[in-house]
Design brief:
The protein is mostly helical. Helices cover about 75% and strands about 0% of the residues. The protein has nine helices and no strands. It has helices spanning about 5-25, 30-45, 55-85, 90-95, 100, 115-135, 135-150, 155-160, 165-185. The longest helix is centred in the middle third of the chain and has 33 residues, at about 55-85. The mean pLDDT is about 85.
């Protein structure tokens, strides 16, 4: 069972990486800070009594769920704001009003990309995810810890219970296998 000090140290060590991951996902610093804070609180309240070696994976799952919750809330909020903003208009202007014509997405945001680009990006991500899932368990574990969770070699080795050299070997083999599989499917990264 994790002590308060161990839990506090874990949260302190994971905070910066979690923030970077949340900012990458939501593209808003303030929202990312809220997401990380919520994930940390949930971990401390519900899983603070778990062994320290289980905390990284639990926190990662909680963080991902909190990011998904953010997007769900944003979708609902956007829908209601759109509906209520059109209620106050008079009926003549409501008939002429087209939300799609008046809506301008921020440059570089997901909303600004074309449908074709969005579909292509989603298909590419699905292919990458499928190829990552095909990797042997140790390679997949090392790859995700190093490149998704942004853990260094020593942290990954400690989490996996192996040497730093093994982590480097697993990561190298994983990246070569992924690159080869994706090139075979016509994807160059």
């Amino acid at each position: 069972m994790a002590t308060d000090k161990e839990l506090s140290d874990f949260l302190e060590n994971v905070e910066r990486r979690a923030f970077k991951q949340a900012v990458y996902a939501v593209r808003k610093d303030e929202a990312a800070l809220d997401i990380v804070q919520d994930a940390m609180i949930k971990l401390a309240e519900k899983y603070g009594d778990k062994p320290t070696d289980e905390l990284p994976l639990l926190f990662q799952r909680i963080l991902q769920n909190t990011i998904h919750d953010f997007f769900r809330r944003e979708k609902v909020r956007t829908t209601w704001v759109s509906l209520f903003s059109s209620i106050g208009r008079d009926t003549e202007s409501q008939e002429d009003f087209d939300l799609l014509e008046s809506y301008e997405a921020e440059e570089g945001s997901e909303a600004a990309e074309s449908s074709a680009d969005k579909v292509e990006r989603e298909q590419t991500l699905a292919l990458i995810d499928a190829e990552v899932q095909k990797l042997p368990a140790r390679q997949r574990e090392a790859f995700l810890m190093r490149y998704w969770q942004d853990m260094d070699v020593a942290e990954t080795a400690a989490a996996m219970g192996c040497s730093e050299g093994s982590v480097k070997t697993h990561c190298s083999r994983a990246t070569h296998a992924l690159a080869q599989a994706l090139r075979a499917k016509g994807i160059s990264l």
